[in-house]
Design a protein that fits this description.
With about 290 residues, this protein is α/β, with parallel strands linked by helices. The protein folds into two domains: about 120 residues, Oxidized Rhodanese, domain 1 (3-Layer(aba) Sandwich), CATH 3.40.250; about 120 residues, Rhodanese-like domain (Oxidized Rhodanese, domain 1, 3-Layer(aba) Sandwich). The protein is built from ten helices and 14 strands.
Length: about 290
């Protein structure tokens, strides 16, 4: 159940309302992860420090979209004043300068923080768009941030690799989700090496779980639960979240693991980009898994 007064969710990640954050701006590290630095410069929540989501992944052996090394993440978090005990609220929005933003920067950074060992992460439900719409205070003033020390410890239990997906995906107690839009899942006009989806993957577009007018705002929890169960993603199954590059899947990972409280949720970080690198690896097209 969503709440305006207390954080809601389970485990290391929870969601908070704009009112909750407004009352605690001096008690928490707020990270602005809007899509363009000019959006942050134009307007941000008071005290928020800017961070660019694209710093989180770089190519490895040529393959794009691979997470940076632990020591690299340590340096980034230390630079923006985040240590292992710093409570963090993350927000993004449609940039007031750039006019772009898909809402995925929030779950992407939240997932990455937990992946590298952070234990107290919050997402601003509705993001900056809701904050601005409600007439809450914004600023162009930059905060005074003192560097600190973050120590990364990779949580390998959060994700699965290609070989694990191949072994697990067709088991009766496993559901492999594809969070991409339906047309890309079907194999229509997509940017990947080959069109289609991983055989056996079930399509649950991530945007169907979010407010239709705000991609950073959750739908009611029971509505999300119903959408999940309609595609067979029930609480008794192991849920593997995938998409195109592993970014859209972070939205579904955070929701299934930390909002719906599913006990066994994994993220396939390589997703369809890695899957299609081998021309001999099968792909499926159409609406069926």
């Amino acid at each position: 159940m969503k709440s305006d007064e207390t954080p809601y969710g389970f485990g290391d990640l929870k969601w908070v309302s704009t009112n909750w954050l407004e009352e605690r701006l001096d008690e928490i590290r707020v990270i602005d992860i809007q899509p363009d630095i000019h959006d942050y410069i134009k307007a941000h929540i008071p005290g928020a420090v800017y961070f660019a989501q694209k710093l989180l992944r770089v190519p490895e052996h040529g393959r794009p979209g691979v997470y940076i090394e632990p020591e690299q993440f340590e340096a980034l978090m230390s630079r923006i004043g985040v240590n292992n005990d710093t409570p963090v609220v993350i927000y993004t929005g449609i940039g007031l300068h750039s006019g772009i933003g898909d809402g995925l920067d929030q779950p992407m950074l939240a997932y990455t923080l937990m992946r590298f060992g952070h234990k107290e992460v919050y997402l601003l439900d509705g993001g900056f768009d809701k904050w601005v719409r409600e007439g809450k205070l914004v600023t162009q003033e930059f905060p005074e941030i003192k560097p600190t020390k973050f120590k990364a410890k990779v949580n390998k239990g959060m994700y699965v690799d290609l070989q694990q997906v191949e072994k697990m995906k067709d088991k009766d107690d496993v559901v492999l989700l594809d969070a991409r839009p339906g047309n890309w899942y079907k194999g229509e006009d997509s940017p990947w090496i080959r069109d289609g989806h991983i055989p056996g993957a079930v399509n649950l577009p991530w945007k169907t779980l979010m407010h239709p007018e705000n991609a950073a705002e959750l739908k009611p929890v029971e509505e999300i639960r119903k959408l999940a169960e309609e595609v067979g993603a029930t609480k008794d199954k192991t849920i593997i979240c995938s998409c195109g590059t592993g970014r859209e899947a972070t939205n579904e990972y955070t929701i299934f693991k930390h909002l719906l409280d599913y006990p066994d949720v994994k993220l396939y970080e390589g997703s369809f980009t890695e899957w299609t690198m081998d021309p001999d690896r099968p792909v499926a097209t159409g609406t069926k898994p």
